Every structure is written in structure tokens, then in C-alpha cells.
Amino acid sequence: KIPVFNANIVLLNVSNLPFRLQKLKEMFISKFGSVPKFYVRAPGRVNLIGEHIDYCGYAVLPMAIEQDILIAVEPVKTQVVQLANTNSLYLDFSTSVNNIQINKTKPQWHNYFLCGLKGIQEHFGLNNPTGMNCLLDGTIPPSSGLSSSSALVCCAGLVTLRANGKTLSKVELAEICTKSERYIGTEGGGMDQSISFLAEEGTAKLIEFSPLRATDVRLPSGAAFVIANSCVEMNKAATSHYNIRVMECRLATKLLSKSKGLDWKKMLRLHDVQTKLGVSLEEMLTIVEEVLHPEPYSTEEICKCLGISLEELRSQILSQNTQDVPTFKLYQRAKHVYSEAARVLEFKKICNEAPANAIQLLGELMNQSYISCREMYECSCPELDRLVDICLQFGAIGSRLTGAGWGGCTVSMVPTDKLNTFLKNVKKAYYQTNVQRLALENNSLFATKPGRGALVFVEA
């Protein structure tokens, strides 16, 4: 195994801890009466383009952001994990490390920590895992589409790995944390966990799957990427919106596979269909037009197409929280996925070739992505629509929702010479016209640069 953080362990001078770590250390001592032995940081992320396609097997293009989850840790001899949060809204929690119970019906903050903990325990088959005292501090706005929950899962996975003296490569750790987040019921694809571990300062990443790999994507120097929070919270694990889309893509995969004489029972992702047929993304869009109809499919029609019973559909294909969904939109979801996958590759190509009009071309791709998310994937909301319109009105070349949608954030590409005017006008038009948004204004609109991936801090 390649030790995961030999090159990512930051040694800190005891007398010169950075302010945030020093403050966390003091709160830890006050809380637990002892000193933390190490600290772990995992960043949030913004996805520039490639929405809802990672779980379909397609490449995405995110970058890590400055906002993060930071945990101070002390391994202890008792087999108990004690979790506390610097934010008093999040209650303390403790449990035996030998009896991890993750409540899918109430996705509270500690359950995401337990996902990362359980993932590492099960990977190594730890029969006698180390207990821990942990104090968490987070700067990622919750349920904002910037991956606060996945950053917490990743942070917890790395905390557990180090506390138990184990090593993994970054890729292995990302894959384990992707699988372990599913303990809470989210059928995610792996983008969030991958960028959290594989990110490097100064570059976005093209993240590809099966096998997992990350390629540098240098963004144009004449533009800034600005994140704007709609202030509408959306928790993927708390609703079925997200998992319904995952199932719609899975069902589209099955019907497309069967129509082409493939072994549809083994096919899970839309990418698998393209690979098996050996055709281009453009050709897949044509096949979608030929095979699927725009009208929603009832469960009865899906069963008839596949030659299975309703019981088989529910037990063998659908997830637990989509069992009672009466209709599914397969045509629209497949159209979005294949067209979005093509936009990601085009985005990377433009970044690599850097033509004179690169910013304009990238902006057009972001706008096309947003329209597809809104119209074909139906994962926007009125507030996101309004925010995108405002961003484009005040100088963004491209603007789109980022993350799962149904709330959360937009990401906009803004020429650097227009940035200050853009920020001022968007604040005035979106945040200062609404009391609730005004209260959140300071942490809701900011320009961002590609940041570093997960780190371990140890006092020298």
C-alpha cells in the first residue's frame, strides 16, 4: 500500500499553531480535559461542470474549495467514540466503536462521521478498533451543494485510518469513503470523495471512474469562479429526489440495454451501455431518441418492457426509498447524462487548448449544462433560476447550479476585470432584497480558487 499522507502530513510548530487550529485545540482541551494528538482537514468542493453523471460512470470536473471540515482527534483506550461540534446547533454524540448504528431516517451530522468510521473498520476488519475523542469545526455551508456531508465522511475515514495506525492510497481511501456514504442511503457516484482526497492547489481535476483517476485541468487565467448560495437548503439523504434520479438512470440503462440485445440484468450505468455498444456519446443520444419516449414510464410499463414482475422490480432494481414511486422519466434523464458527459470532455479540451475565446466557449458550456439540469433533469428550483439570471445579468459569462440541486449553490465564471462590480451587484440584487438571505450574506457569495485535498496536521 502507498501510505496515504506521508506527503500530506503537515508538521506544526507547537508555539505557532495557525489561529483556527489553536482555537480548536483550546476548545478541545476545555471539552475533553486533554490535548488532541492530531488534526484532519477535508475540503468541500465545487463542481464546475458534469452534474448528476458520476453515478452513471461519467467523468466530472470539480475543484476543491477553501471551506472545509476540520477535526481535532485524541485516540483513547476506551472503545468509545465521543463526538462534539464547535457549532452548538449540533449536539454531542457518543457510541461504542463495536456497535455502529447509522440512522438513515434522520441524517444528523454524527451519522456522516459514523459512515467514514464504519467504512474503514469494515475494510480492515478491525475487531478491536481504537476509541476516539473528536471535536469538529466546519466552514462549508450545510446542504448547499458544496459537499459538506461527503467532506465529513472523508474526514472521518482519514481520522479512523490514522487513529488505528493503518495506511491506504488516496485512491483507495476515496473509493472506500464513496461506498461508506451509502450507509446513510445516498446512492452517490464518487466525485465528492475523490476530489476531497485527490485535489491539488491551483488546478481543477477531471475525475474519471472505473478505474478512478484524476487529471489536472488548468483553468483560464482571465476568469474567476464565483460561488453564490441560494440559501435554500437541500439534504440529499433527507429526500428521495436524488435517489429517484439515480434509479431513473438505472432504469434507462436497463431499457436501452434490452433494446440492443445486451445482458440488461448486469448493466447498472448509462456509461456501461455506451461501452458495450462501442459508440460515441452523440450516437447514444440518437439511440435514446429511438428507444425511449418522452412521456413518463409507469412501473407497469417498465415491468412489461423488462419482462419482470413488480416485486422483482422493487427487490432487484429500485432503492429502498424509491419503492413507491409510480412513474419515472427515463428519456429526459438519459438525454441529460449523455449530453452532459460530452460537455465535460469539451470543457477539458477547451481548457487544454486555450483558444483566444476560451472563456466565452466555457461559459456557453456552463449555460447549456444549466438549461439541461433545469429542463431535462429537473433538479433546479425557483431561487436557483433567479440567482442564475442575476449572475448572467451582471456579467457572468456562464452560470449554473452546482451539486445535487433543488437548492444549494450556483457557480459562475466571471471575467476578473468585472469581478468586484459583479459581487457588489449580485449582493444587492439577490441577498439585500431578502431578510433571510441578508443574514447569510457574508458567507454566501465568494470567488474561489482550486484548493488542496485532505491533510493531516501533527504538532512537531
From TrEMBL:
The keyword Cell division does not apply. PROSITE patterns: GALACTOKINASE (PS00106), GHMP_KINASES_ATP (PS00627). It catalyses: N-acetyl-alpha-D-galactosamine + ATP = N-acetyl-alpha-D-galactosamine 1-phosphate + ADP + H(+). Residues 27-75 form the Galactokinase N-terminal domain. Residues 357-431 form the GHMP kinase C-terminal domain. It comes from the Eukaryota. The keyword ATP-binding applies. Residues 111-198 form the GHMP kinase N-terminal domain. Its EC number is 2.7.1.157. Keywords: ATP-binding, Kinase, Nucleotide-binding, Transferase. GO terms for biological process: galactose metabolic process. One of its GO terms (molecular function) is ATP binding. One of its GO terms (cellular component) is cytosol. NCBIfam families: gal_kin. Belongs to the GHMP kinase family. GalK subfamily. Monomer. This is N-acetylgalactosamine kinase. It comes from Fulmarus glacialis (Northern fulmar).
